[in-house]
Amino acid sequence: MQELQYFEEVASELYNPEIRAWKEAGRRVVGTVCCNMPEEVIHAGGLLPLRVRAPGLLDTAKADAHLHRINCSYTRSVLEALMRGDLSFLDGLITTNTCDHMLRLAGELEAKAGFPVHYFSMYHTLGSSSRKWFVLEMEKLIGYIQGSLSAEVREEDLRRSVAVYNRTRRLMAELGELRKKDPPALSGAEHLAIALVGMSIPREEFNGRLEALLPSLRERASGASGRPRLMVVGGACDMPEFIEFIEARGVSVVADALCFGTRHYQGEVDEGAEEILPAIADHYLGRIACPAIIDGFDHSYQILRQMVSDFRVDGVICARLKFCDHWGGRRKLLAEELRKEKVPVLDLEREYSTAGSGQIATRVQAFLEML
User: Cα angle at 214 between 211 and 216, to 5 degrees?
Assistant: First the structure.
């Protein structure tokens, strides 16, 4: 479909034409390494928040000299991209401590970046104390933006950014509704490419592109009806090729809970809230929780269980990165609960840059035969 070609092309590279045009206009880009970073705050400073990825990177030899290979391949790939100069267009970067691997990456990025790096300390539980923590960290982030990047962040700027991002979330929710059809209006790979573009170009531009795309998708069908309907969950999965590899086995990936996918766009910020920073915190705390959140499973499972029902999911694939302990634990808890609902779960351990393999194909095929 010609209208989707733009999204597929932009998603295939990090330093895409939209970012190049942004930079040529004298504007700045700030990278983030986690979807828990409040993009609205960065956007309010007139900056372009960019979720850092490493598309097409197949080797991490430079990074492996600094991060042991028991660190997940996403963190090693980000460091490799930095050391190769692939992130040299960034004007700033925000790191975090979502897990021990990310904490190790944060130290390496701070030491090697060559541009201002800010450490955003992540909450690890849900509740009122985490809400206060998140607000304090956003205040520190504003200090970084205003101090290190000399960009002003005002109350009206924050509220304007929240409105822009809420518009994105509503549009992505509309897109999600089209995946409930049988057959779905777009494939899982196409949906992931669209989601990635939203994290990779100016948000106003993305909203316009998505608004123009939706009408042409409403009468469209992707694949055949009656195919097994799958949900994909897991860690850093930003390769449409991987989802396409799964769908080539004769299934439809109709839902996901990926931090590079649906989870990134869930919910909305209360635009009418008296205090905007606490409202932003409530939004991020209300989404499906990262497995790094110690007490986040029950909250997340209720959302996932509803998605399984709404999207008529026949089976769930947990595509977790090798050495990711958090997702290893989350997968076990998720499988135990979904088994009670008679929804099978396939555990797929993968590397960040691997689109697919013979072993993965065999396991997916066996899973489908079980369905």
Answer: 125
Residue burial 247-265, b: 16+ Cβ < 10 Å; e: rest: bebebbbbbbbbbbbbbbb
CA 330 from chain centre, in angstroms, equals: 17
**Tens digits of per-residue pLDDT, 158-183?**
999 999 999 999 999 999 999 999 99
DSSP conformation class of 3: H
- Whole-Å CA distances, 198 to 43, 202, 332, 370: 13, 8, 31, 36
Q: pLDDT tens, 269-294? A: 999 999 999 999 999 999 999 999 99
Rg (CA), the chain: 20
Contact 82, 54 (CB under 8 A): no
Residue 224 covered by a domain: no
Domain assignment present for 8: no
d(CA 336, CA 241): 29
pTM to 2 decimal places: 0.96
Residue 332 within any structural domain of the chain: no
Of 163, 14, 24, the C-alpha closest to 86 is 14
8 A C-beta contact, residue 67 and residue 79: yes
> Residue 114 sits in a domain of what CATH number?
3.40.50.11890
Number of domains in the chain: 1
Q: Would 206 be classed as within a structural domain?
A: no
Sequence-separated (6 or more) residues with CB below 8 Å from residue 105: 33, 67, 71, 75, 78, 79, 95
Domain span at residue 120 reads 19-154
334-350 core/surface letters (b: 16 or more CB in 10 A; e: else): bbebbeeeebebbbbbb
As a whole number of angstroms, the distance between CA 1 and CA 186 comes to 10
